[in-house]
What does this fold into?
Amino acid sequence: MLLTALLLAQQVDNQLMPTGQLLAPAGVVQELEGARPVDMKLSPDGRTLFVKDRDALRVLDAGSLKETAKVSSPGGASLWGLDVSADGKKVYFTNSENRLHVFSIASGAWTLQRSIDLAGPEGKGNSFPCGIRLSKDGSRALVCLSLNNTLGIVDLASGKVTSELPTGIAPYDVELTNDGATAIVSNQGGRRPTKQDRTAPSAGTETPTDERGVANTGSLTIINLDSKATREVAVGLQPSDLIILPGDRAAVVANANSDSLTWIDIREAKATRTLVVKADANLPFGSMPDGLSLSPAANRLYVALAGNNSLAVIENPAGKPTISGLIPTGWYPTAVQSFGDHVFIANNKGVGSRSKDPKQDGWNSHNHRGTVQKLTVPVTLSAMTAKVMELAFVPQILRAYERIAKSTAAPLPVPKKLGDPGAIEHVVYVIKENRTYDQVLGDVKSGDGDLKLCTFPEINSPNHHALAKQFVLLDNYYCNGVLSADGHSWATEGNVTPYLDRAFGGFNRSYTFGDDPITYSSSGFIWDRVLGAGLSFRNYGEMNYSDALPKRTYKEILDAYKQGHRTKFTNNIGVERVRRYSDLDYPGWNMEIPDQARVDEFLLEFREFEKSGHFPSFTILYLPQDHLGGPVSSRAHMADNDLAVGRLVEAISKSRFWPKMAIFINEDDPQNGYDHVDGHRSICLVVSPYARRGVTVTEFYNQTSVIRTMLHMLGLPPLNQRDASSNLMSTCFTAKPNLSPYKALAANFSLDDSDLKKDTSKEALKWFAIKNTVPIKRTGMKTEKDEDNLNRFIWHEMKGWKTPYPTQFAGPHGKGLAKRKLKHVPED
It folds into this structure.
């Protein structure tokens, strides 16, 4: 099989992404160093391309794609929003901190000319501006004020917001009819809720949701700019980019979370047509159309499919639209522009996280490699469509959903087909925080590690090492995401929507940990699949924020644990369905809470399960202390996490449930840690009586491999295209069980150890002062600087205050790839 053969020993490179997707973009591709593009516009004459990056305006020559200017955007960039003046000499750019930047060119140089405050006439504070369109005469700007749920009218001469017109929830894009009389706004959160709706807050606004906690409406607001009258039209989920067709009669919007486009009659304010847009109509959710461009001369509509890394070509968009083919793009296309016989595509993640010809020694996972791609049309669509189908693993995805009606096969831990009997009845999924492979397992001689980069060797993490050695060592395992905001989505949804992937310019709507319903994929969470099949589920800590009650310090909670006393905790779980299946006494995120308190709470319930003989089919445990950065030393945080993992596995392996058990232990993300192969490479421990013993597995796996394997073990199909395209982790298991239990190893360091008490040198105090600037009240950190500071602090604390930081190995860089021979194996 193509997928299995290709991924057998291949590591992430310029073609294979950490998501398991392959890239072969058509046309000419230009990398933009450090870029993560979210929007793009051409100058009216078609000669200049303006790209909205996460923190800058990038200016490119449209002919050569050479970058001619890069101008910083103070305050980052919002999800969407870019427009160009009629003369091409001014660019309007919405940022993440409530402002509209105006860039202009003078004497051949682009500069930030002015910045307009968009607080509104009543000084409402943060409005998080997104989509923008200039009025026909260029005197006003219409701006989607996402947090205000309004369309702001900005007088550009005075720099004032003169009025705000109501829209739906989280307005995103705005377009004007040619006569300038009507504005159309796409609302990613949909309509305002009624009393009958389930709701959950998104950035402070109650938003309609389904029972899973996923935002379940999308809408367009049609506004008469003279009378200020508004009409609302229901469309698909997470409506994004929209266009108005010639004649002002109809508009088309891309519904990213519904894999569809909707046509709207503007005068009648009603939807007239919906077209599903996927690489194959039979695919499950995951194509995620999020960018549109109309070529009137060619009577053609181009659609960016973020999930399929492709461009869909739609003929006759104003008549009876049909999909004529697909064109391969870079990773995660987000914006499209067409001009004459050229099509330009902005790819949010581009070529992944490395350059073929790097100009520096190494990168961290936030030194992005976004791209701009240029095509000359017409193209040979049949060949390109076939290429997209191959790169997107479409046949493999469809096969992943095939179920055998009746099977006589012997039970296996990972059944060969859905419908075959399985040997596993209970799956425990442990989600931890932020470590790369080399940071923890770089000293294991049987794996591809780098001892120099190993921050927490065996003495610091004895249980991680023992489990990797006694069971399976995975040295080619990757996290799909970058930080906690997208990491927990990858870990629980197996996908990330464009709404979240565009947010790296500033997480102003949410840095979500179960607390923004617009974030979630329409395919739902892994527990939704489990519960939908009538199986049982229990959650311990995931998507939960907690505090000690009454307030206690880390040491006080730890001392209570040592004395056998429980600590009570508050809970704050944003997804109601998760809350219903959670142990509300188990604490979620808070670096002031030791993992020993978490495992103790789990074991209290586990003993009751032992007595009753009933244990959930699927269980999630959150053990976040390996995030580090809290009130004790890094080695103490890691020792706490390591001991918690060991105690958990020991208890389960000595229980009555062990013979039919599988435990998967992994990280939500690698943050911007260091690894000599790639900054996405991370830790995954596979523990089961059916797990192979004492072997190293080099097959490519990632977070979606784990999700697909866990579901498959329970006889359940994948969630969406991403996990369906991932390979099952069959190589980690054997048909013959070994029921030997695991014995937890004691920590080699005090769990309340603090280096600050031991070392008050000038260099140590400097690094402790830097660490204290890093916020730890939310999962992950808000800025890349915070993440870099924490990783540098951890390095110096563990390796020596004056030991040089390994910048050349920080983050995803691909330095260890050359010795790995990479090749395609044809489909058999």
Summary: The longest helix spans residues 634-653. The radius of gyration is 26 Å. Confidence is low (pLDDT under 50) at residues 1-5, 359-363, 820-828.
